[in-house]
UniProtKB/TrEMBL annotation:
Keywords: Amino-acid biosynthesis, Histidine biosynthesis, Hydrolase, Methionine biosynthesis, Multifunctional enzyme, NADP, One-carbon metabolism, Oxidoreductase, Purine biosynthesis
Name this protein carries in UniProt: Bifunctional protein FolD
Species assigned in the record: Mesorhizobium album
Source lineage: Bacteria, Pseudomonadati, Pseudomonadota, Alphaproteobacteria, Hyphomicrobiales
Family: Belongs to the tetrahydrofolate dehydrogenase/cyclohydrolase family.
Originating gene: folD
SUPFAM superfamilies assigned: Aminoacid dehydrogenase-like, N-terminal domain (SSF53223), NAD(P)-binding Rossmann-fold domains (SSF51735)
Catalytic activity: (6R)-5,10-methenyltetrahydrofolate + H2O = (6R)-10-formyltetrahydrofolate + H(+); (6R)-5,10-methylene-5,6,7,8-tetrahydrofolate + NADP(+) = (6R)-5,10-methenyltetrahydrofolate + NADPH
Length: 306
């Protein structure tokens, strides 16, 4: 069966379109009221998968009526120089959201950069003070890839309460937030990582399996419970047999789709939804800024546009 007509594929595109249409309405109103949303992306160094992400962010931000600017920095920039650039963006009232694309080079402590972003402009909720919100079940602004992955699981209609979920990968931007988001929904969550003794043994028990490790085709059919939902979060660039660069996930899709009831394709699964959620988060951040202006200055909240 071809990719286009297989109902087992859980596609992010249709959900992303719905979200972007709603964001567009919000952004149009906010702009008319003198508060145009503007997202600034910070990229450090050259990484092909990140370039794909940023290209899609720009295209979808334009569709949603959100201003988008990319600031690119050389891989040998210092952490101090980057922090100074971020402080400049924090102080600029025209900038309403900041995203730091990951990964950054090893000499830059990512936590220091995230902590430099003003929490009100933190569109990923990755400031150390913001990431704790999901521990407290405040879920309206969560890290985008994690939120997109959970949103796709919800599309299956499975009851999340008590669902056996296994997350392979425990990064702070994807695996850990997924675990917290799912616990908030009542799922029973197991997180596997590089010290887990048998990832396969855990994975085979899962009603829903999330994979985010950056290892092409790590998960094979014999690691998946029949009827499970498999959410593939891997974005790995590789050269295909035709000599062209292509993106593949962490799941061996062709074999796993014979066992799973749902599987996210790569590309076309979590990726498009990640971008849509980033734009939705951008509006959540903007609305928090507006609420603060209102609380501080009364009704006038047109400062950003002036
Ligand atoms: N600050 C962050 N950095 C990173 C995150 C994140 O959530 N926040 N996650 C990944 C992002 N990423 C890979 O580096 C990535 C995300 C989304 C897409 C994407 O749009 N994919 C689409 C389109 C593919 C295409 O046009 O060929 C899809 O999968 O269908 C690409 C990459 C790491 N960094």
């Amino acid at each position: 069966m071809s990719r286009s007509d297989d109902s087992r594929y859980l596609r992010g595109g249709p959900v992303a379109q719905r979200i972007i249409a709603a964001v567009r309405e919000d952004a149009t109103i906010a702009t008319a009221e003198g508060f145009p949303p503007k997202l600034v992306s910070i990229t450090v160094g050259d990484i092909a998968a990140v370039d794909v992400y940023v290209r899609n962010q720009r295209a979808k931000a334009e569709l949603a009526g959100i201003g988008f600017e990319e600031r690119r920095f050389a891989a040998d920039i210092t952490a101090g120089e980057l922090e100074a650039a971020i402080h400049g963006l924090n102080a600029d009232p025209r900038v309403t959201g900041i995203i730091i694309q990951r990964p950054v080079p090893a000499h830059i402590p990512i936590k220091t950069l995230q902590a430099a972003v003003h929490p009100l402009k933190d569109v990923e909720g990755m400031h150390p003070a913001s990431i704790g919100n999901i521990v407290y079940n405040q879920l309206d602004l969560a890290p985008c890839t994690a939120a997109a992955s959970v949103e796709l699981l919800k599309e299956t209609g499975l009851d999340l309460k008590g669902l056996e979920v296994v997350v392979v990968g425990h990064s702070e931007i994807v695996g850990k937030p997924i675990a917290f988001l799912l616990m908030s929904e009542g799922a029973t969550v197991t997180v596997c990582h590089h010290m887990t003794r048998s990832v396969a043994a855990h994975a085979r028990r899962a009603d829903a399996l999330f994979v985010a490790v950056g290892k092409p085709r790590l998960i094979k059919a014999d690691m998946v419970k029949p009827g499970a939902c498999v959410i593939d979060i891997g974005i790995n660039a590789e050269i295909g047999p035709d000599g062209e660069s292509r993106i593949v996930g962490d799941v061996d899709t062709e074999s796993v789709k014979e066992v799973a009831s749902w599987i996210t394709p790569v590309p076309g699964g979590v990726g498009p939804l990640t971008v849509a959620i980033l734009l939705r988060n951008t509006m959540v951040a903007l609305n928090r800024q507006r609420a603060l202006y209102r609380a501080t200055f009364g009704v006038a909240d047109t400062l950003a546009a002036e």
